[in-house]
Input
Amino acid sequence: MFKDFLQMKGVTKRQLETLLSSAEEMKRRIKSKDKFSDELKGKIVATLFYENSTRTRTSFEDACKYLGAAVASLDVATSSVQKGESLVDTAKTIEAMGTDAIVIRHSVSGAPKLVADSVDIPVINAGDGLHAHPTQALLDLFTVREHFGKVEGLTVAIIGDIKHSRVARSNMESLTTMGATVKVFAPPTMLPMGIERMKCVVCRTIEEAFVGTDAVMGLRIQLERQQTGLFPSYGEYSRFFGINAERMKLANKSAIIMHPGPVNRGVELAYDVLDADCCRKDEQVANGVAVRMALLKAILEEKK
Ligand code: CP
Output
């Protein structure tokens, strides 16, 4: 299918459908009594997280365990990175140990590509800077398809910090490849330069973002990426850009709420929708394991 999985750009509809179908099978399996297999027995997957993570890292590691692969988890904070070892040298060291694949998250856009160009083993991007988070987009796609039975013809609104969001960029690619329309709405300070050229419709009002929409995706306010204050306060952000029950009444009848997590509770998502049935954030987390199993299997079995 592919050696590496670095971004959604360039991934075809057919490849996405293959991964989604495989993930469906993986999800069924996780829910069954026989959730462990030995399909990737003998394989070692290294996880290199240069940036914090709960969902992505744990779900990749769970996915390995469900498939019988061993996990080598590099603790960057206590590794030789702290002695000045470069990213490429670290990756080559991991490869030299006989590791079969690297899963990497890095704060610098393009870091996974640099690693992929330097080693012969597959590299999976678990989120790089502002660039891409392709496995998040894959689980989002799975969540939408699971709920609606299709993606084509649906409208997904992404609301929030588009400028700093690798999740938004990857979702624009994958959702439009599958035939959905993507709308975005954000404070002007949170829209990137050149947004008009991206695969989305820019909404001018919050009502425009909700009306006719099937899935509303909130994005976390990323304080760690903001150089300066891009909005006055959390309270004002919530008032003007938050997803709440009243605004959800404007969306289509069976509309769902999504959020990649972690959520700033009461900010991107109001308390009145956080635990509502239409809020799929926990299902997204569950789906993250299934899609990462499908991806690891596709990449590592291909290598075999
Ligand atoms: N959605 C996401 O990437 O979450 P983590 O940062 O917890 O991995």
Summary: Residues 153 and 180 are 5 Å apart (CA to CA). Residues 281-303 form the longest helix (23 residues). The chain has a mean pLDDT of 95. Residues 53-56, 127, 136, 260-262 surround phosphoric acid mono(formamide)ester (CB under 6 Å).
